[in-house]
Amino acid sequence: MDEIRIKQLEVFAHHGVFPEENRLGQKFVISAALRTHLRTAGLTDDLTQSMDYGAVCAEIQTFLTQHTFQLLETAAEKLCEHLLQTLPLLDSIQLEIEKPWAPIGLPLKTAAVCIERGWHMAYIALGSNIGDSKGYLDGAVQALEQDETMRVERVSDYIVTKPYGGVEQDDFLNAVLCVKTLRTPHELLDRLHEIEQTAHRTREIHWGPRTLDLDILFYDEELFSDDVLTIPHPEIPKRDFVLRPMAQIAPYFVHPVYHKTIMQLWEQLQA
């Protein structure tokens, strides 16, 4: 990944825990590494294929002067989120905010916070077999599209499938979508649960009927497991209703555990 770097941009703003800092203001120094693909810009000499670092500096200054935060951590977090949402070509950012006039009563050159944030690719399974199943799936897609921390990239066709898990119930309507997200896996899971709740999802029977079921299948190529969440979803190789729609939108995505493409896993399940 290529980078555009901004080093030690000085901004006078009003962030800090103490009321005097919010009232009087002080100097902040911002450095950033903006990660994007610069190949096309380099070959074409076309600014629209890159990011105007002058405009980015102005955006940073405007944001930090129009908002007031107590913590540098919050200022950095919100600024990263703002830049990622407003700069279409920005993939990720490493940001440092220095506070050289920090009122700590001891001699120091500067205090600083440095964070790294970026877009992550996730695949999400959708399912419903109660009520207006198409309406529930449409509503979930729309909720993700309207979330500023999400960019829905692709949505598979909706397919009708037989129930999984041995519970006698109606057929399901299933789909898989690909989304870019600024959320961590647990934050993404929380958001999916919120969307499920708007569809009055209940969890009374394991693998039972539900108005809306949203599962994280993959998150980048991460391998992760705790008491709440396992990534990749452990049931993927067994589920036609996941592999079939995902093969439509990402047939050559490689499962990071089995090292096989989605198409290969689907063909293996059908054999």
From TrEMBL:
Residues covered by the 7,8-dihydro-6-hydroxymethylpterin-pyrophosphokinase domain: 206-217
Cited InterPro entries: Dihydroneopterin_aldolase, FolB_dom, Hppk
GO MF, one annotated term: 2-amino-4-hydroxy-6-hydroxymethyldihydropteridine diphosphokinase activity
Listed pathway(s): Cofactor biosynthesis; tetrahydrofolate biosynthesis; 2-amino-4-hydroxy-6-hydroxymethyl-7,8-dihydropteridine diphosphate from 7,8-dihydroneopterin triphosphate: step 3/4
Keywords (A to Z) from UniProt: Folate biosynthesis, Lyase, Transferase
UniProt catalytic activity: 7,8-dihydroneopterin = 6-hydroxymethyl-7,8-dihydropterin + glycolaldehyde
Pfam family, one: HPPK
EC number in record: 4.1.2.25, 2.7.6.3
Domain of life: Bacteria
Family according to the record: Belongs to the DHNA family.
PANTHER family: 2-AMINO-4-HYDROXY-6-HYDROXYMETHYLDIHYDROPTERIDINE PYROPHOSPHOKINASE
NCBIfam families: folB, folB_dom, folK
Function of the protein: Catalyzes the conversion of 7,8-dihydroneopterin to 6-hydroxymethyl-7,8-dihydropterin.
Name of the protein in question: Bifunctional folate synthesis protein
Lineage per the UniProt record: Bacteria, Bacillati, Bacillota, Clostridia, Eubacteriales
